[in-house]
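So, could you explain the following?
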Amino acid sequence: MPPYKILLAATNPLVSQWRERLALPDTFSLLTADNSTQALDLARSEQPCLAILDADLGPENGAQLCQHLRTYSWLRNLAVIILAQPGVDSAVEYCRRWQCQRVLSKPLSDAALLDAIVETLAQRPLVSRAPRIAQRLPVRYSRTDRRDRRGHTIDLSPGGFFLQTDGLYTTATLVHFEIFLGENLEPLCGRARVAWVNHHQEVLKPLYPQGMGLQFIDLGTQGARVVEEYLHRQANLLCMRKP
């Protein structure tokens, strides 16, 4: 079973300190970010079971980032702990206002944070609600909006898709794409970032062919809704086909 993912988004030196010293069980892996933009990208693509957000994060602070995460349907049930400065008047009111599960005052020890992680996850399901559906869909893409290269998806999820193609880019490249979802449906257009690459001479994930794992970065609310609705329709069709 793959490890459950915990996202820690904090300013340095906190993120460096906990990356090295936080003694998580082997069943968990720690994702780290030192700004809200990176944290949002990781949350959307990796779908962690818990996010720990520093109130002093930037450009969005931890509370604002928490609300931003809630705008994505597959992250609405994400457990969130916010690390706040001392003096928060009411933890209950703070959590209600910013839609988090818990608020902890800084500074806090490694042991106190680990206890909070265990207690928070004990009250939350650890199963992702975001579907990843095997889908072969035509794709046009390129590094510019010309989108003059061709490929097709192997799978599609709310956070991105795997593109089977011989026209590979390096990790972190920004890609303009257009996915054709089928008859009577508008193509899904946007930009994505190359998260990982499978090359026939350097296979990162053996179950996938040559191609790239792409992470959505600017679908917008409407585009995210289109993906969500499409995935749920396909999931329902798969269930109907089962004997």
In short: The chain has two domains: 4-122, 133-241.
